[in-house]
Amino acid sequence: MPTVCCWFALIAVAAVPVIRWQAQTSGVTGRLRGVSAVSAHTAWASGANGTVLRTADGGRTWQKLAVPGAEKLDFRDVDAIGERAAYILSIGTGESSRIYKTIDGGAHWALQFANADPKVFLDAMTFRDARHGIAFSDSVDGRFVVLATSNGRTWERIPADRLPTALPGEGAFAASGTNIAMAAGRIWIGTTRGRVLRSTDDGKTWSIATTGLATGQSAGIFSIAFRDALHGVVVGGDYRKESEAVDNVAWTSDGGTTWSLVKDHGLSGFRSGVAFVPGASKSRTALLAVGPTGADYSGDDGRTWTAIEAAGFDTVSLSRDGRTGWAAGPGGRLSRFGL
Questions:
Q1: 68-317: CATH number
Q2: Domain residue spans in the chain?
Q3: Is the distance from CB of 37 to CB of 327 less than 8 angstroms?
Q4: What is the distance of C-alpha 314 from the center of its chain?
Q5: pLDDT digits 0-9 by tens, 213-249
């Protein structure tokens, strides 16, 4: 399918760099909640009705991949670990929550985790490398549910006695596949109650911290990103009030032990995805946050933000070199962007 050739530059103000977006033709109309950039050439996307997409030519064409027996699943998260290897996660109660893996570009898929607990509802996952990953579910009977793999093949549930007690109904928003982050042996998970579940020893022990983000039935943390073991951000808001900008972003410089809520110069609306942009500055403190109403840019580790014009997206992913990324959203929307 041909790429829609319509590059356009966003208006840059102050220290905001010019970000160029290229709308692409995905070939699907369903909502895409998952996206994972590998390089300037390769990216993956996922969404409703068993949708999994892959490009190997920079987005000029997108191939729709078939996952046998998964035609009705909602793949809210995709995590690529290479040009041809990726994991996908589907959400839902009971058997609908699954994790698959491919190592041959999507020609074949292995079902790695098939949920059998009717109370478990997977939300998202992330990976430190090809072997080590974490997946998170809504809490069950007052206990958090965290799955881990250390071999890239099998998943084990972390014993409940290692995890803090969950608040009533605490879980995660399965909105962008980005509410979990891993860096330097540390793990962070943002919850619906505005808290961050964290481990500093690769999942052996856990603690929890409050961020101050607004919470409610449709509000809380939607995305989390860390550029190293100390510096991170959480973004969110109320998805039923997309244009409201109240207590929807916080930052940390101590690994998530404490969080500072941004009160002035914060996000311009509800944001469901955030990612660091390493190539944007020598200090590597730049961030891009996306949501249904547009996007925001920060050049100072999330302390202040500037709204930039962009189409509505649900999720965002940057390639390893930080120079190329993709964003995905409703109606099969996909755009590639770079600095």
A1: 2.120.10.10
A2: 68-317
A3: no
A4: 9
A5: 999 999 999 999 999 999 999 999 999 999 999 999 9
